[in-house]
Amino acid sequence: MSVTVVIAIALLMGTLIIGVPIPFAFFSSAAYLIYSGNYDPGFLLPYGFAKMNSIVLLTIPLFIMTGGIMDKGGIGDRLVDVVDVIAGRIRGGLGVVTVVTCAIFGAVSGSSSATVSCIGSIIMPKLKRAGYPIGHVAALLANAGVLGILIPPSMLMILYAWIGNQSVLACFLAAFVPGVIVTVLLSVVNIFLLRNNKNIAVAEHLDMATASKLFVKKGIQATPALMMPVIILGGIYGGVMTPTEAAAVAVLYAVPVAMFLYRGMKMKNLMATLIESATTTGVIMAMMFAVMILSRLYIMENLPEQIMGVLTSISDNKNVILLMINVFMVILGMLMDDVSGILLGTPILLPLVTQLGVDPVHFAAVMGVNLGMGNVTPPTAPLLYLSGRISGAQVTEMLKPTMYLLLFAWLPTLLLTTYVPEISLGLVHLLMR
């Protein structure tokens, strides 16, 4: 690998580690490559704008708005209530409620950080009152929040499809089954870890008739919230709406539900949510513009082929190379948020795996699981720290349960997704090919 590329990557990683804002970190690496390679920035700027001139990218601010409205509008509370009736009366059941609710919320918001913020603020007081260890609930919330990356419609999969010129729907389908596997495994590991904890209060057991009546009551109250993923995903998979149109419908549906049905949001809150969404969108767009320029420079510096040369010098076995790529992606996810990871990793790694004969749609699921795992892997673990701030837990309290969840939920899912392509491609072949 050339010295120029090594220095550019080291500059990028170094600035990220010391806390430089991500867009500026990307721009600093790009500026070094432009200077050292005598590239003309006059063609790079139009290239960045041209790449961002895509209607698919409208889904990003729309889903950010949807997540914010759901967070402030009381929609998440109804989701928690209905799942609680089913799973909340067994030891560790509230942990299962947390995981499943995060999966459902992720199926609408498409954002892991929004999922952690919304569901965490709702479920955390209940978990604390029930006597759950604070470190356990913080670790579980962080790991479950990552389901927003995998359960469609995922903003991450939209970005991957945009960069890799793949079908958005195919990428959604590819990530769905791994997302379900992680959901199940997180729930099982949670129950296993808490099986002997006598300090956890368990809600009174209800007879079948009473439980059925309560479920129907809570289900009716939660129907408008539960209809959101049905409308969005049904519209996309049924061919009625594009992902961009579905994102717009999600916003139009969420506003009256939050303001008039659940009455959790007023006009003042809506304006604050829109302003916050616009700010977040602006940051993401600046970051995307910087990454597009940087990835173009990496391609011009022949970085994918150089990385492939380094990997094949270690081993020419496809499975070993995939393992090394997985390790690289987990480290990438540890150093930066999921959006940055997908924007930087896709243009570099997609040509590599294509040379190995890996289906690009299959690799979408592999990247999703890897970056999700990286977001909760110490020492950086951005989502783990976000969950810690919401719950008030210390990092030392979260480490042990996090390692259990990583080893027995995320790692098996990653290995299955990587080495059993049918896990991610089964639905794609069934519904699209």
Structural description of this entry:
The protein is mostly helical and 433 residues long. It has one domain (3-431). It has 21 helices and no strands. Helix 4 packs parallel to helix 13 and helix 7 (112-129) packs parallel to helix 19 (382-391). The radius of gyration is 22 Å and the shape is globular. The two termini are 39 Å apart.
Q: Topology, pairings included?
A:
Blueprint: H1 3-17, H2 22-37, H3 41-52, H4 59-72, H5 75-87, H6 93-109, H7 112-129, H8 134-145, H9 147-150, H10 155-164, H11 168-194, H12 208-237, H13 243-261, H14 267-300, H15 303-314, H16 318-335, H17 338-355, H18 360-374, H19 382-391, H20 395-419, H21 422-431
Helix pairs in contact: 1-2, 2-14, 3-14, 4-7, 4-13, 4-14, 5-6, 5-12, 6-7, 6-8, 6-11, 6-12, 7-8, 7-19, 8-11, 8-19, 8-20, 10-11, 10-17, 10-18, 11-18, 11-20, 11-21, 12-13, 14-17, 15-17, 16-17, 16-18, 17-18, 18-20
Helix content: over 70%
> What is the terminal-to-terminal distance?
39 Å
Quickly count the helices: 21
Q: Helices and strands, in N-to-C order?
A: HHHHHHHHHHHHHHHHHHHHH
If you average the pLDDT, what whole number results? 83
Tell me the β content: under 5%
Low-confidence stretches: none
Counting DSSP E segments of at least 2 residues, the number of strands comes to: 0
Given helix and strand content, the structural type is: mainly alpha
Radius of gyration based on Cα positions: 22 Å
- How would you sum up the global shape? globular
Q: Give the total of domains.
A: 1
Largest sheet: none
